[in-house]
Amino acid sequence: xxxxxxxxxxxxxxxxxxxxxVEFKPDKINIITGASRTGKSAxxxxxxxxxxxxxxxxxxxxxxxxxxxxxxxxxxENEQILLCRKEPGKLASTGEMFISRGKKVEIPNTIxxxxxxxxxxxxxxxxxxxxxxxxxxxxxxxxxxxxxxxDFKAFLFQPQNIVANADVMFYKADTMENRQKLINIFPxxxxxxxxxxxxxxQELERLKKQKERCQRDLNSIKDIAESWKSEVQTWLVQAxxxxxxxxYDTNGLTFDEQLVLLSKIASKNDNxxxxxxxxxxxxxxxxxxxxxxxxxxxxxxxxxxxxxxxMLQLKGALGDYEHSLKIKMQRLEISTWLKxxxxxxxxxxxxxxxxxxxxxxxxxxxxxxAEIEKTTENIKTMPAAFERELQIVQSDIAAYSEELVAxxxxxxxxxxxxxxxxxxxxxxSSISRFLGRLESSLQTLNKIGKDSELExxxxxxSKKIEELSxxxxxxxxxxKQDAAIRYINQRIGEIIKNLDAEYPDNPVEFLxxxxxxxxxxxxxxxxxxxxxxxxxxxLSYHIATILAFQQFFQEKGGxxxxxxxxxxxxxQAYFPQRTNKEDVGAAIFKDEDxxxxxxxxxxxxxxxxxxxxxxxxxxxxxxDDDIWGDIDSVYLVAKWRGDEKxxxxxxx
Length: 652
Fold this sequence. Notes:
The protein is of the alpha/beta class. Helix content is 50%, strand content 12%. The chain is built from 15 helices and 14 strands. The strands form 3 sheets. It has a 6-stranded antiparallel sheet. The chain has a 5-stranded parallel sheet with strand order 8-12-13-3-14, with helices on one face. β4 and β5 form a beta hairpin. α5 packs across α7, α6 crosses α10 and α7 packs antiparallel against α9 (383-415). The chain starts with a strand and ends in a 12-residue tail after the last strand. Mean pLDDT is 81; it is low at 137-144, 417-424 and 577-584.
């Protein structure tokens, strides 16, 4: 994506002076050379501040004391965009900004705020087609927040403290929050995760949650239906006792058939009751049968409870025994230590006297330790089977307890224990009340027990989840990510050959989880960047990595990234000692260092030619034109020496 820098503009606090312009070329190696304290290192913070950083890191004192507004004029394929931000004074930053867009933007003489930093962030996120969806809808913390154009600053800026850093590869990645966010957005950065995938992932999580809710509701309904099975049988027995159904066996009916029968019973009235002696006798037999089942279940529960108690006691005793073995081992370990201290058989290591039986006794104690260790190992093989059996016993206790409760409820209902007016249960009014309770219960069951709709809904959700899962294919995402990293690794390896690396032919691998590179040596060892010596190596791998990423973004990437890179004083790795002469600001290099620094600029030149000048490179340097002056792609932006600086002398 074309989004390069045309100009940096500074407006003075003294209104009588005109603004200051620093102009760049889009297809060149733009160089600002100069002495120390002339404003070269302020270039990156100025651009970052105008791109909406949450903190102003432009150097205080001279630059901020003299400047009222900072501005950057950017060029895209179709327009120019001027972004300006007010100097924050004593604040960390200010939200006051100015924006102007058009085919050809005129630089205003004075600036008045016409927008906010938040609005600029929104405009630029749209311009770079950033997804408005979070990276992870489950986690919810800032590390997985939606990607932003601000995240790509890591690949654009190499300030002085980063460009030859052994521990930090990317701009602002020296803070935990920025580092973690950068790691998390890498699948998006590399085009493996697209806005479409993020949208599908978010919809997928929503559907999964909806399905889980429906499944919970369905399970609840099934649990209710399960508990109703014993209750329905009680209703049928009572209906038979009250003469509301014919005398036939209801136990052979399915649950659904029983519900149909209960619905027919509920539609009757008290006059339909035909009480018969056989029905009452059958009820008595039913209660006796239930009592017998209750007794059987009680016996089983007693046996299980006893077994459960014994197993818990055994578990406790096993732990105590293992603990006692450990204590014995700790006490006997001194014998091993003593044995190692003995240099000659029978000679005490403390008094150096000869004790004929000492070695034999020590060997005996060491053998005891070996036996205890063997016993301890045998004990450790027991718990797996034991824990399984304990779990089975606990599950059986829960199941039998639930069954016992259900049977006792049936006994209580059918024997009239819960009915205060049990002695009047055969009266017409009692039968009417029974029918009313039955009808109300059936209405409740019908209301919550229609699981077919839920099952149908779950089936539809499952189908949608399956369709979206094919879009959010984690294996495919990983494949694309790996392919992108392979391309970047290849480009790093090619670019590093043009720089002053110690072993330029060694394979290089970029590691996302560590945000650094790993170099495989000829000995087969993998060395991380921080394990490789020399600032010249660190500098070379930084330059190669940043150029490789920028080439990937512009040629292979699926996301829109600005096509400029800024390196602040890369020659610092070779920076010389000062001479005793009057220093006019130019850096004096030894011949070998001069050649190494020149390699940096010839590497930039070769890179621009290979990428057909699609990437803008900006370099701030101490090195003068005796190093880079004869390179084709170089454009000298400014030479700040003496009174010539970023801030004009008259502003001060």
